[in-house]
Structure formats: C-alpha cells, structure tokens
C-alpha cells in the first residue's frame, strides 16, 4: 500500500505544476471545444480568479471616468465603436428597438424597428434596413435621431423625425413620415460591464473551453459600458397618426465602448422580458469568433424594485437557430438572488424584422416580438438574433462640413470667404462661418457671391482702443444684471450711438479697404451687402434671426465702413440685448461682419428642406418673390409658395404651388435700394417649376454636406442660382407640451401598482416645480428608501413618485412592503393612519403578494425590533442638531458654481433629517398598531369597527405636546393682545403688507409676540415642500391675514379629559387588564405624536434653509447673467442649474421659460385618492355630485357632534368664504390652515388619517373631525346646513 501511496503522491507533485503551466503560462493555442471536461473544476478556479482581477481593473477604469462614460464619445481605433441600444416593449404589442453606433472618423450607423399594435411596422427604407452616414462631429444626432442626455445614467431625451418604410404594406414600398419623442428614465443605477456580470457565470463560460495554453485569458473581451432598465414614455405621430399615440415602454438600455461586436462575435441572442408584475430580465448569450463558444450573462430588475445580476442561465446557444431556423418556443431557467425563474417564450415568427450590414465585418440581425410566461406570470418579450456576415467592401461615407477648431484665434482683421480661416466659427461668427463652409463645396450647381469677413479680432481691436465705448458697454451689462440702477433701453441707445459716432480704427479701416480692392466690380456690380455675424448666431440651437442688422446696396468705402459700425452697434440694440439676456447668453459678446457682393436677383427667397410647420422631411417648402429676398425674409410681401416632395433616395418633384400677391418688390439699383409696388405681379410666378426643383436638389445636397435639415436663402439671376445664406433649422427639436408635462414622471413598468394622494397632498397640495422635485422631494424620497426599503439608490425615486409634476405615494412599496399570507390587522391600522379608511382588499393584497412575495417570518420580528430601537432614541433632538449644523455659507464673493456646490453638499444632511422624520412617523403608527391589537383582546378581525377608530381618536386627543398646535395658539395670543388694546377694528382694516410695521408702532407687545412666533415657526408655510413658496418669515403679511381672521372669532374652550376619564370612556375594551395596559400606552402614543410633529418641523426648517440658499443663488445668477429673472431658477432642475453654470445653454433657459408658463396648469391638476396602474388626473375635479344618497362616512378622529353651515373650500385661496362657526369641508389641510381652526365648529377632509395635520390640530381644539370622506367637496356646497358626527364618522344634510 505504501508503494501505491507514494507513487500517487509524487505523480501529483509533478502533475500539478505541469497543469498549472499548461493552463496559465503556455502560449501555443491549438483548438477549442465546448463542454465540461475532467479539468473543469481547477479551470473554473483559475478562471474565476482571473475574472475577478479583470473585473477589478475595469471597475477602476469606470470609476475614474465617472460621468464621462455617459457624457463623452470616445473612439480610439478602427475596430472600436461607441454604441447605444434601446429596446422597449409593452403588454399591448408595441415595441421600439433602435441601435446607434459611432465609429472612428465620425462614421455612424443607425437601425430602427418600430412595431405598433395596430399592425404598422417601420424600418429604415432600403433593402438593408440600416442607415450609414458620416457626422460633422461626434454626437448622438444620427439619421433623424437625436439623443440628449438630460441627466447622466438617469434620463435621456430621444427624438426621431424622418422617413421610414412601413413593411406591413406588402404590395409596394410605403414610405411614411414618422416622428416620435420619448423620455427614457432609468429605474435605478446601471449594471456596469464587465464588473457587474456574475463572476462565477463568466468563469464557467471560460472553464468550459478547451485550454492548451494561457491564452484563454485573452478571451475576456475589451469592452466596457453599462446596461440597465427603465421606461420610455412619449408619443408617435406621423402620416398614419395625426393624433399623438401615447406609449409607455419598459426598456432595456445598453451602452458599450471598445471593440465592436462585429469584430468579436460570431453569433448572439439577446432576450428582453417584462412580466405583468414588473419583473424584467435582460439575457445575452454570445459565441465569439476567437474565444468563448458560449458566454451567457444577464441582469434582472425585480417587481420588488431590487436589482441583481443573473447567476445562472441554462440557455444553449448552439441549440437555438444556428442556421436561422427560428424556434416557435424558447425555454430557459435562470437564477436570480437564489430564486429560480422558469422562462417560456413564444415567438411571433410572422413579425420578424431583419436588418443587414453587408460590409466587411458586417452582420445581420433579426428582431422578433414574443409573449412569455415567467413562472406563472404572463408577460411580453423581445428576442434578437445576431449573426456575423462577411462582406467585401468597407463603407467610407463622404465627410460632413464642420467648423474648424483652433487653440488660438488668428489675429487677422479680415479673411476672404473662400479662405480656410473663414471656417473658424469663433473668428467669423455664425453667418460668416456658414458662408465659408458653403464656399468650400466648389459645386457647379450654385454660386457663392464674392466677399470677405471682418473678424471678431477687428471688433475687439475697436473696443480695445476706445475706453469710453468699453465703459458704456460695461455699464449696460451692469444695468442688465441688476448690479446698478438704470434704464436699460436708454443705455442700449447710448451704446449704439457711441459705436456709430466713433470712427473705425485706422488699422481696421486699412484692412477693410485693402480687401475691397481685391474684388473686381464688373459691369453689373450693384454694391455690397454688409451683414452682422455674431458669435452664437445661426447655430444649431439658436438662429437669432433678425436680432442684428443687415445693410444692402452699400456703394462706397465710406458707406461700407458706416455699415460695419452700424452692424457692431446693432449688437447692443435693446432687442438684441434682450434676446441674449432672455436666453442666458453673455450680453457682452463678439461680432464679425460679412461684406459680400450684391446679386442683381430676378427672384429670390427661402428654402426649408423640412416642412417648417409639420416638420415632415418628405416635404420641402420654398417661398419666393421677384427682386431681392428681403421682402420674403421680413414678411413685407405675400410670396409665392412651392411645396416639393422628396423621396428617401433623393428624388424630387413639385406637388403644390400657391400664387402670392407679391405686391411689394425690392430692387437694387446703382443709386441704392428701391421698393416697387406692382399689383400685376399677382398674376405671374416668381420662379418656374424647374427652378423650384433645382433649388430643392441643392437643398438635398446641402443637407448631405452639413448633415442636418437646412434653411437656405437663395437668388436667381440670369438663370444662375446664388446661395446667400444657409443655417440649420432650429425648430426641429423643440420640446412639446406633452414632454414638458411628463419629463419628470417616475418610470412605471406594470399596471399592477397602487398609488395615492393620501398623506402626500396634505403637505404637497399642488403640483411642484422641477427644482423642488429634484431637491427637497428627492431628499425626502432618499429618506423613504433608506427607512422603508433599507437601501438607497440615488438614481431612482421609489417611495414618492412624480406624475405630471404632482407627487403621489407608491402604496405597495411604501405601505405594504411587509406581506403576510392573509390580510393582517397591521395593514388595516396602517390604512387608518394614512388614509383614514380601509383600502387594502383581497385584490390589492393578491397584487402585493405577487409583486413583493411573502415576507419571511423573521422579517416581521426584525421590523418590530428596528422600530422599538428607534423609539428609545432622542430622534427629535438629533434632528435639531443636524439642522442647526447645516451651513450653506454662500457668499457674493464666491463664484456662482462654488455656491451651487455648497448647496449640493448639504443634501446628505437634509436627507438624514427627513430620514429621522420617517422614523418618528413609523414609531407613531407602531404605537397605534400595538394599542389596537391590545384592544382587540386576542380576537381575529378582518375589519376595524367605528368603536376601535373612535377609541384610538380619543386616546390621541390626549396628546397635548404637539408643536404644530402652537401655531394657532400664538396667533390667538396676538389677537387677544390687540383686542385688549382695543385695536380690533383698526387692525382689521390694515393692509396685510403693513401689518407688522403697524404693530411695531402701535401695539409693541403684540409685535414682540409676533417676532417670537416668527423666530420659532417662521420657516413654516403653505406647501412646505415647495422651495418657491414664501415662508412666513419671508412674508409676514400671510400671518397678518391670519391674525385678522382670529380677531373675528372666539375660541371655544376645549373640553379636557383626564387620562383616567379617557380610558373609562373607551368602548371596545371589555377587560380591565386591557384598559390598564392602554393607560400605560397613552403617554407613549402622545410622546410619539409629539416627536413626529417635531421632526417634521425640523425637516421643514432644513427645507427652508435650502429655500433661502436657492433664493440667494437665483439672485447671484441674475447678477452674473446666467438667468434673465431670479424666479426662473425654480423651473430648472438642480442638475440643470449646475450644467448651466458650467456652460451657458440657451436651450435650457427656453425650456425653463416654457415650464414656467405651464406650471399653473400642472398646479391645478387633481388626482383621485387611490389609483391602480398608470396614474391619470381627474377629468374635471370641480364638477359637483348633485345626488346625495344617504350619509357620507369617513373615519372619526376627534369626537363630538355639531350642526352648522358647511363651507366647501378646495384650496386656501378660497378661505375668504369662511365664516365663524362653519364646518369646514375640504380636500386636505396642512400647517397653513392652522390659524383658521379657531373659527370652525368642525372639520371634514377627503384625505387624511389618524395622525394627519387636520386630525392633530382638530384634537388640540376639541373640534369634531372626520377624515377620509371621499368626494365630500362634491357632495356638499357652501351654505348647506349639515351635521358632522365625530363619534361615528357620519356627515349628512339636515
């Protein structure tokens, strides 16, 4: 035996180093095969170690890149690309699949597969179904697509406007105009590639291969990027859809940088699944040309809002469609977070779409829609099959025209239009740069008139040598920014006159005159056109059309010099300054001037290569008139209109023409410009049909040359076509009202969701600004994530959701996250606390179980322990300390961006304060749960009785230490002092804005109490989460109005019961022991309610500090010219403010102004209390319900019976209707309503629970109060005499 033992021992010693050498170090590769062999286990061990090292390397690379991985386009070699892929599907059969890819030298490729559930299916025209092109610069503007990163890794705007082939039409090639606009919003943080691929799954793929040397390590691909899930929300419109077709598509998005798949992959299958409860899976299996024969990986985003890598996939690539014979069904098992999911996918093979790249290293891919089962849940799926295709040619597109970028601008004062220096945008301005690029085309189809550009260096030299001019411009800028007082319009006039009155510097004059001498005048020379060419003018984003001056028909050198001075001056006309100011551009900027030979045009006009109204790229629109085109551009004359049709492959024909009156014609003669009125022009066409087609062909040529739709000014003279100007059409990508209304919507992927306005609308009663959504409410949602879900994803909103700029609560994720097998009493009590009435039923409970799964039994105990631990802490004290420590320390001496970063640096502290409020709220509800469970005395109930609810309300009425109840006490105190001083009548007549000063001068004791109140509660206000709303400290006139209201009423003394009396009056407990335990609980419940209100006050104080910081920042941004008005800051997201400070962006300013205009509409939207599926606002929430059947019923939260006049008020703006002694019927209340409670005899609200604001303050005043009464503001009207029963929750007319 010893012999065999030692023999085996020494053989092993020799064998292990040999195997290690073969697997790790040897370099000669022979062949590969698939399958597990007898060396699989050691191979797996080695592979996993290498995979983890490889993943760590890329993790560090991605970490170093940060946001640049998303925001920058980098392509390092001919084999590398930067690619994006979006695939969205819904349960109705709609889907959108598109890929965009950018390679070296700006070579780009796009494909699109759009399926709509009415059967229409769209792809790019042509046999291949893809569009290859060259870009003027690296950007995601490809083949009609425009991808705009609104927030890295979180939000992308996707627009498309172009011609697509409808392949559902089999009889002929049906080409249609299709436009779609979507906002893609992520569900959370991306999965980064390769670091987030499951390392064991990756290692298993490597270990299955045949290793003959260490080159197996080279099989790990040189790609990095990310994949993640989200939803595309938007619309499709076009020839077949005159009305917007609204879609919400759960989506998988991926972005990869590195070696392109076409160089690496032999075959690939990608599967996207979204089931009816929101489970999403993205599975990829690849076979590499020189690597793994089967590499599977994938990711999951589950219905419980948690994300995981897939840890096992049993999909076998070589068994599925190896020869493009697609199966009817694919079945695979995957493991996610230790749970097995059985996926059965039924392919709709009659709906296959194919796209082909037949170049060298080409490919073909097929997309197939499908239905699926995920375990037993139904869902939608989409499958892509990718195959390599070896073509012969390499696609080399024509390069696009683009401006020249230089490190330092040349110093010359003039440059010829045909010189290469004219291509430098920062030197020659928008118009000059465009003409220079046009001249470089050297086309026989058109002529560019001779001319030159007076550069920005000449303009700067003029300023540098004129101190008075510089000073007047500086003063104008200071007036515009509000740094000094002054009349802006008068200052603009002063600057423009200074330019015109100051002679052009001699050096600049000399350069201009010498340049003029280089051009032969010819027999038909009619003078020069002198046009302004400002920096930022005629850009892709902003045309600045008509803002600066043009002078035609200049004959002499002096006239040209005067025109140049006038062009410079026009940069500071009131309209031009206002235009830049309103778009957040520098008021003080540079200008070049174009000097160009005039064309003695027979006719002239404008061409839009896309229809300017419908944006239809198949229609080109020409407007024309006799003579100069100035009458067309200025709108002085009714021109002829020609509409051309152009096909996707460049064929053009005239489809319509409209004869204009053309009664005014502008001609240029040797003596100057002459306007002629010719009525007979109405009978003649200004251009022929052939000329219209000729213009259209040139338009197509320029579109191809510049890479975008164009606006072109042209002229005909002696049958020759002259081009005078060309710029991009800037209106193609304008934000629609739909996009602006839904851009902030939380992405949803399932109809099996429940959302509510309860609890939320008490503190956020109206639609909120985007700044509030991305600051205060983001901090609040982060707090909910940390507390409710015990994790935190900064790229998502999971507790509070946004819809059309209104805030809602996700009921399942926030309230029913802990799931029992059957409806549990705990959930019923939560309903009572939040809604004021039962909500959870068997249907919702079943939905919750399917989304969240049953909670482990230990989870309930863990939650209990967590809340109990918090109950023993001084959370309110900790909250106050954090708020006291918040220090924004903004300074006017610091750059605006530094102050912005200081604000952002406080978000974590504010979020922690909100987290404390979440804890105290949970503690308060926890004690209510304990109390009701005790009162049940061991009984199992499925519904709480009115007695239970009334008893809890009675117990809570003993809670006296509530900070929010101090508000009406203070105001009553101030009113009492005024009454005692006999100033009631006088003070009631004082203007609220003068009230504080009047008290200071006439009733100082009341004034001192007012100041004490403002110091303690001045951070509170109506709509406390909204940073735009004024706090009471900022605007004490709000408080003065409340004091004046208090002077009209006398507070009824609250009937105070002792704890013993309250316990004795309880109806539901039957045992003395129960009453004894409840008595012990009373103090705990009171303390919890007080702590809840105190942490809420501290949270609002933190929000108010943030509010004041934004106020400061808005003013500073105005002073530095970033914003035209300080209030516009509320209509920018927090991130957008940062983007704007890093780089001025007129598009963002325009967007903010549009939001500001739409904001009143969003504020007025009303949503039902409970919504299932995608939320929808009520059609007309103000329509009364005239038929009252029986009695309305809600939850009693403060006992008592009262009969009185009803006052129905939906918002505090209507508070003037309130009379002393009324029963207030309203939607909900917050702190802003508190001062009016002394006037009331009772209150009922549609929203609210046991610890809602209305309930807390009503108990403080002893007012009968009922909450959760649905549609009460519709059933009753002001003036009805009603009875409110705070004992059983009933309300009815008398």
TrEMBL record:
Annotated PEP-utilising enzyme mobile domain residues: 1219-1289
Matching Pfam families: PEP-utilizers (PF00391), PPDK_N (PF01326)
Transmembrane segments: 6-24
Gene Ontology molecular functions: ATP binding; kinase activity
Domain Pyruvate phosphate dikinase AMP/ATP-binding: 426-733
Keywords attached to this entry: Membrane, Transmembrane, Transmembrane helix
Entry annotated with the keyword Transmembrane: yes
KW Glycoprotein (keyword) present: no
Family matches, as InterPro entries: ATP_grasp_subdomain_1 (IPR013815), PEP-util_enz_mobile_dom (IPR008279), PEP_Utilizing_Enz (IPR051549), Phosphohistidine_dom_sf (IPR036637), PPDK_AMP/ATP-bd (IPR002192)
Membership in a protein family: Belongs to the PEP-utilizing enzyme family.
Protein name per the record: Phosphoenolpyruvate synthase
